[in-house]
Each structure stands twice: as structure tokens, then as C-alpha cells.
Design brief:
This protein is mainly alpha-helical. The protein has 2 domains: about 5-35, no CATH class; about 50-125, no CATH class. The protein has helices spanning about 50-70, 80-95, 95-100, 105-125, and strands at about 25, 30, 35-40, 40-45. The strands form 2 sheets. A two-stranded antiparallel sheet has the order 1-2. A two-stranded antiparallel ribbon has the order 3-4. A hairpin with a 2-residue loop joins strand 1 and strand 2. This is RVT 1 domain containing protein.
């Protein structure tokens, strides 16, 4: 089995500011070193803190939530809105959390922002009053 050098990268996980780097070669071609890679939908960085992954995930979820709100503004059935939220947004937020589980409060608050926005919208749809 041969490996495609263009799809191979080196990512060294370390807490050191001056890590020892080794140049890897595959089929007489150097393998590029990166500080950030995306594998199976999860963004890994050299510190394994997943800040980049969480911020990209929140941006995607907020865009998708905006799309759901814009396209479903005439819907009156709240269970349909909940189903759309769980299908398109929450499933993406919960994908592979065993690997990237948020441990920092900053990450948790960013993820909870999406849920709070959706809950405020549900409250608005049910009562007609936008909560503060």
C-alpha cells in the first residue's frame, strides 16, 4: 500500500515552547509540518486545547440557526422547530464530544450561546415576547 505524500502531514503535540522537531521523509519527499489539521471533522492543534474547533463549530451553528430561524419564521408548531434544531444544529455540536469535550469555561459559554439563542427564539414563538 502506498501513501499519498500530499495528504500526509506531521503534527507534534507538545507543551514545550521549543519542541524538538524531526523532518520526516516519505517516498523521498519531505512531509510538511503543520500546527493545525482537520481530521474526521475535528480540528486538532499542537496544544490539544480545541479552541479553534469550538470557535469554528459555534460559527457554523450560529449560521445554521440563523438559517433555520429565517426559513421557518412562519412555523407555529414548536416541536417542528425543536426537531430542526436537534437535527441540523445540536447534532453537529455533539459530534465526537468524547474527543474534544470542552473543558474551559470560555468553550462551554460559546457552545451554550447557541442553545440560549434558540431557547430565546422558542420563547418568542410561544409567547410573542422576546426575552432579555
Amino acid at each position: 500500500m502506498s501513501l499519498n505524500v500530499n495528504k500526509c502531514t506531521v503534527l507534534s503535540y507538545t507543551k514545550s515552547k521549543n519542541p524538538i522537531t524531526y523532518n520526516y521523509v516519505l517516498n523521498n519527499a519531505p512531509v510538511p509540518r503543520r500546527t493545525l489539521i482537520k481530521d474526521l471533522g475535528i480540528t486538532f492543534d499542537i496544544k490539544l486545547n480545541f479552541n479553534n474547533h469550538v470557535s469554528n463549530l459555534v460559527i457554523f451553528a450560529l449560521k445554521m440557526l440563523g438559517f433555520v430561524i429565517r426559513t421557518c419564521k412562519e412555523f407555529t408548531n414548536l416541536s417542528v422547530l425543536k426537531t430542526l434544531y436537534f437535527t441540523f444544529i445540536r447534532s453537529k455540536l455533539e459530534f465526537c464530544t468524547l474527543i474534544w469535550f470542552p473543558i474551559y469555561n470560555k468553550q462551554k459559554l460559546a457552545l451554550e450561546l447557541v442553545e440560549r439563542k434558540f431557547l430565546k427564539y422558542l420563547n418568542y414563538k410561544s409567547t410573542g415576547v422576546w426575552p432579555p
